[in-house]
């Protein structure tokens, strides 16, 4: 069965994933909008940067974050200067790493949803003299609701499943950085297969359910066709 | 006479064949990652001396046990501890009487900053640092040895909240060398250069101050038929191999 330490890791994972998902939606929404609407020549670079975590091994990303956020790193110097100390081995550091790592899973569905809206609803709103902000919240958000739901689910689920980055910047501290994936790894390494199975089986079930909900109930690929 | 010549020709031919057959033997070896450097060198010497070759895979001992119990094709296992080989004997995957200690790990308290760690490790009682890195004591023998040292020094309870744990000693070293942890416990083999600590500052902890770190090797049942597998284990006990092992900062058993 699950012991108290296992339950702590589940709770911590839930906290990290929730906070990271909210932050990713806050950052990802304007970013995705800009990536869809902008004609800027920086767009390509920006797209590539956002998608980078999809192809980089997490240990590479984690290692660079460790250097960047460390006392000699650029980010580390800034955070130290601000009196925040360095970020590795802290809950805040874990959130920063999670946001960077799972961002493409939020930005890309949003991009797809925004692109699917097309010009016409926006032009219609403009003719009715809606301000851009008003247009965004009364036209774009409702039309892209499937995109937002997919982004939220994928962002959350992917953060729950992250491992390599956390391993590198976390330091495996109970209640601060020891998330469920690290705990599973520990159980397996210590040959405690029974406990590993409880957690791993639970994670498998969770991930499957969430994806089933997305593809089976929400019929996610519908997002881009829902306005035909 | 005629028959004799034929026989001797036949004999030398078969010898030649056996020789060339042995020549070609390659063994698959699972090696604890802390032993990467010495083992690479030992494998080269092994090839030169015996004509056999060793194909090395590096990883964590616990993961190797899981893989071996699920059909991994390794024939020799060089563990980072003495417990994992025993487990493989119990589960019937290893040859019991082939287990022996090929190296004894030396623990070091290390910092990337020069003159930070003193030679008696007084800094552990003095404090003044925010993070102390060590390998997870539950998984890594070097971590367990570090815990036993701190308990013996009576500083464990005070230092425990400052622990940051690497999954293995290689990751622990990254924590320290990037400066994210001011200091931490490593294997001497990680920081040794030409017989002494290469950079930063460190305290080589006397062996009687902590739990011994016995690294055991064992023959796996998959390797019984392959002459190269027992030959490698035998070579690990040779003077040539022992010199390499020592050079990388390990002790040897029976010395």
In brief:
Chain A is mainly α and 228 residues long. Chain A has a single domain (4-56, 104-165, 178-225), classed as MetI-like (MetI-like fold, Orthogonal Bundle), CATH 1.10.3720.10.
Q: Secondary-structure element order of chain A, as H and E?
A: HHHHHHHHHHH
- Main sheet properties of chain B: 5 strands, mixed
SSE-based structural type of chain A:
mainly alpha
The total domain count of chain A is: 1
The backbone outline of chain A, from C-alpha atoms, is globular
Q: How many helices of chain A in DSSP terms?
A: 11
Q: Percentage of helical residues of chain A?
A: over 70%
Biggest β-sheet: strands ordered side by side in the sheet of chain B? 2-1-3-12-4
For the record, the CATH architecture of chain A stands as: Orthogonal Bundle
Q: Note the gap between the termini of chain B.
A: 56 Å
**CATH fold-level assignment of chain A:** MetI-like fold
CATH superfamily of the largest domain in chain B: Periplasmic binding protein-like II
Written description of the protein model:
The complex is a heterodimer of chains A (228) and B (255). Chain A has helices spanning 4-37, 43-55, 58-69, 74-81, 91-117, 120-127, 132-143, 145-161, 164-170, 180-189, 193-217. By secondary structure, chain A is mainly α. Chain A has one domain: MetI-like fold (Orthogonal Bundle), CATH 1.10.3720. Residues 222-228 of chain A have low confidence and may be disordered. Chain B is an alpha/beta fold. Chain B has two domains: 2-104 and 214-247, D-Maltodextrin-Binding Protein, domain 2 (3-Layer(aba) Sandwich), CATH 3.40.190; 107-204, Periplasmic binding protein-like II (D-Maltodextrin-Binding Protein, domain 2, 3-Layer(aba) Sandwich). Chain B contains eleven helices and twelve strands. Chain B has helices at 2-23, 36-50, 61-68, 83-90, 123-126, 141-153, 156-159, 169-177, 188-191, 228-236, 239-247, and strands spanning 26-32, 53-59, 76-78, 100-105, 107-111, 132-135, 163-166, 183-187, 192-193, 196-197, 201-204, 213-219. In chain B, strands 2-1-3-12-4 form a five-stranded mixed sheet. Chain B has a five-stranded mixed sheet with strand order 7-6-8-5-11. A two-stranded antiparallel ribbon of chain B has the order 9-10. In chain B, a hairpin with a 2-residue loop joins strand 9 (192-193) and strand 10 (196-197). Chain B is elongated, with a radius of gyration of 22 Å. The mean pLDDT of chain B is 90. Classes of the chains: A mainly alpha (228), B alpha/beta (255).
């Amino acid at each position: 069965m699950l012991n108290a330490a296992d339950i702590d890791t589940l709770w911590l994972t839930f906290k990290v994933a929730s906070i990271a998902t909210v932050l990713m939606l806050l950052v990802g929404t304007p970013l995705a909008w800009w990536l869809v609407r902008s004609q800027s020549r920086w767009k390509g670079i920006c797209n590539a940067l956002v998608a980078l975590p999809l192809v980089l091994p997490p240990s590479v990303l984690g290692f660079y974050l460790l250097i960047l956020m460390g006392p000699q790193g650029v980010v580390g110097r800034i955070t130290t200067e601000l009196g925040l100390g360095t970020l590795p081995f802290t809950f805040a550091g874990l959130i920063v790493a999670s946001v960077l790592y799972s961002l493409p899973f939020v930005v890309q569905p949003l991009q797809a949803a925004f692109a699917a809206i097309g010009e016409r609803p926006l032009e219609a709103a403009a003719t009715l003299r809606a301000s851009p902000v008003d247009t965004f919240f009364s036209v774009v958000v409702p039309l892209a609701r499937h995109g937002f739901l997919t982004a939220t689910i994928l962002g959350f689920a992917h953060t729950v499943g992250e491992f390599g980055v956390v391993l590198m910047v976390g330091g495996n501290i109970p209640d601060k950085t020891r998330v469920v994936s690290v705990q599973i790894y520990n159980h397996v390494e210590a040959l405690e297969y029974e406990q590993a199975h409880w957690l791993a089986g639970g994670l498998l079930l969770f991930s499957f359910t969430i994806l089933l909900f997305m593809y089976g109930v929400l019929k996610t690929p519908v997002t881009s066709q829902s306005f035909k | 006479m005629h028959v004799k010549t034929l026989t001797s020709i036949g004999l030398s031919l078969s010898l030649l064949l056996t020789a060339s057959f042995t020549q070609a033997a390659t063994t698959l070896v699972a090696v604890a990652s802390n032993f990467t450097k010495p083992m690479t060198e030992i494998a080269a010497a092994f090839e030169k001396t015996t004509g056999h070759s060793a194909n090395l895979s590096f990883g964590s001992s616990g993961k190797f046990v899981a893989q071996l119990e699920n059909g991994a094709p390794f024939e020799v296992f060089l563990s980072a501890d003495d417990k994992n080989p025993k487990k493989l004997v119990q589960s019937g995957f290893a040859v019991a009487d082939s287990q022996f200690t090929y190296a004894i790990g030396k623990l070091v308290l290390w910092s990337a900053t020069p003159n930070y760690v003193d030679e008696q490790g007084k800094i552990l009682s003095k404090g003044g640092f925010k993070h102390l890195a060590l390998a997870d004591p539950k998984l890594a023998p070097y971590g367990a040895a570090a815990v036993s040292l701190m308990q013996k020094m009576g500083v464990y309870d005070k230092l425990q909240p400052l622990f940051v744990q690497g999954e293995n000693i290689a990751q622990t070293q990254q924590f320290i060398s990037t400066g994210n942890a001011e200091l931490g416990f490593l294997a001497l083999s990680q920081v040794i250069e030409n017989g002494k600590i290469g950079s930063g500052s460190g305290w080589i902890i006397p062996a009687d101050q902590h739990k011994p770190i016995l690294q055991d090797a064992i023959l796996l049942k998959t390797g019984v038929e392959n002459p190269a597998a027992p030959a490698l284990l035998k070579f690990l006990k040779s003077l040539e191999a022992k010199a390499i092992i020592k050079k990388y900062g390990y002790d040897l058993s029976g010395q």
